[in-house]
């Protein structure tokens, strides 16, 4: 297991942690679906430019690859829509906590369909990461909604399956990370833009959007959705899907620390318990 590829996963988690900070900076002036659509546009920009700058083949010739890539991109695109519903029904705290269970589904999919061996250390570390995420993200949630809970859990399952099938697609040696990102970006861009066009007009603006808001959100899409996914795909050349998902799930830890640094947010005792759980879980996964 390469330490460089493990660092790719942690770098991706740090990049993903910037997303809620960008949303927080722009939410007073733009509706949520408009922000998601702008991030999707940034992802498309990354995918298209990456494809143009490389000689990676984008057309697939084997039905097995078509199947794995279709599952991957549909999981990611469908997950974006389900997460919007979950956040609306549960609030961002509980929705994030439930959707953070995706490492379980990634490990299960890798075990069932790819024959990956899940070690005791990986299982224990993943459990600690998930427990830590629960403590970090349950504060501030609104009332329970069965529909929101099911949507968040389904989003987690889709994210986990997407991660595992990404590795399956690349394991054949025919499709590259660049090609996979290209197809993902097109689907996510189409889904997020459609959501904004259909539902976004119902959301009232709370302020006047600034060009800097648009730039921040598009850049967030380029970095969080594009570069972050590219780094994870690179890491999965030697890192199992279960390990990659557990390390990538440390995103809330970095988000909390960055919020403390940039916005002065203070951590409660419950959140500190979550921080410790995530750190210990990550170390266990790394060492075992």
Automatic annotation (TrEMBL):
Domain (EamA): residue spans on this chain: 8-136, 147-285
Cross-referenced Pfam families: EamA
GO cellular component: membrane
UniProt keywords, alphabetically: Membrane, Transmembrane, Transmembrane helix
Stretches that traverse the bilayer: 34-53, 65-84, 104-136, 148-169, 181-200, 212-232, 238-263
Domain of life, source organism: Bacteria
Protein name in UniProt: Putative membrane protein
Source species: Jonquetella anthropi DSM 22815
